[in-house]
Amino acid sequence: VAALGACTPEVPAPVWEGEHLHYGTTTRQPICRGSFHLQERHAVELAALLGFELPDVIHFTRISFRQIRKYCRGRVRGCAWLDEPFAFAATSSFDFHEIAHIVASLGGLGGPDAFVEGFAEVFDDLEDPRFGGAPLVEVLGGELDSEAAYHTAGRFVRFMIERHELATVVAFMRAAPRDAEREVFAPIFAEVFDEPLEAAIAAFAMYPQCSDTDNRIAVLDCSLPLEPWDGGALTIAAEVACERDDVLGPDAQRRMSMTRGFEIAAAGRYRLTVADAAGTSQVRIVRCGSCWDGLSVDVPAGEPVERELAAGRYYVQFARRVDAPGEVSLVIEAP
User: Fold this and answer.
1) Is the dihedral angle over the CA atoms 295, 298, 302, 303 positive or is it negative?
2) In sequence order, what are the beta bridge partners of 86?
């Protein structure tokens, strides 16, 4: 997040206007239509999850990397303004992390930096998985200057959601002052969560290490309609093309992607086969869980592979380069 200075930079006029999100750009980079529609849906659904309706239109702008300091006041990949519903991204045409910041701010959520950034990490988009982390004590002390620190912040916020429910985490973020230091927010933490901060830190040591893919709450992806099984087989086919309303992109690697939902009724070993004539698609299946039970599997095109899959809801992400649209399918066969 970034605070506005005395001189607010001019924001370009939108190239797309939805009911709840306006999208602008300062670049000539392509923009897949899902970057409009899915970001708007993410904002609306996240606000509903937090118990309110969006009171203002969110303004999202794709900027060039050399404009970062102009709009974000620092060396970052994107930012959201604290006092106005404006978000900016420099390396991708979408950024659920910054959208989550805006939604949280519109909902009256503040709190210490670790919770502010951790919340946005939990409700981020599906990126390449990141692992590792920074010491939690340092992160709670406001040291959020690395991807490892952001990862730890996200895991701690998700841990507190699992431990106390989302509504309690929201109540704490509304009660604690923004940018509060530990000595200020610790008593509020104890009152809201009914446990001292030190106890939560100790319990977090037992929380499983996992990627941010498993740690995220996929608001849209885990509420998709479920693709139907045909006997013992499930075939999910997709046309990945930038002009589709359900395709996000391009990301920092110039990929576009779409997701589909499915369910595994019984745990077991399943055969997974990806069909892609060009052989350039990236396919990943992700279980809708948390660090306790999450599962993400990359499935290469070509020869079938077998994987153990737990019962539950999943989604599959199909990704291709933005300049190489095409069809791709995943077949899952029961044991």
Assistant:
1) negative
2) 59
215-255 pLDDT tens trace? 999 999 999 999 999 999 999 999 999 999 999 999 999 99
Q: What is the CB neighbour count within 10 angstroms for residue 75? A: 8
Q: How would you label 247-274 residue by residue, b for 16+ Cβ within 10 Å and e otherwise?
A: bbbbbeeebbbbbbbbebeeeeebebbb
Beta-carbon contacts of 109 under 8 Å, excluding residues fewer than 6 positions away, are 50, 116, 119, 170, 173, 174
Consecutive H or E run containing 193? helix 182-193
Q: 172 and 111 in contact (C-beta within 8 Å)?
A: yes
Under 8 Å between Cβ of 218 and 126? yes
Q: What is the CA radius of gyration of the chain?
A: 20
Residue 6's pLDDT is 47
Q: Angle of helix 113-122 relative to helix 147-164, nearest 10 degrees?
A: 80
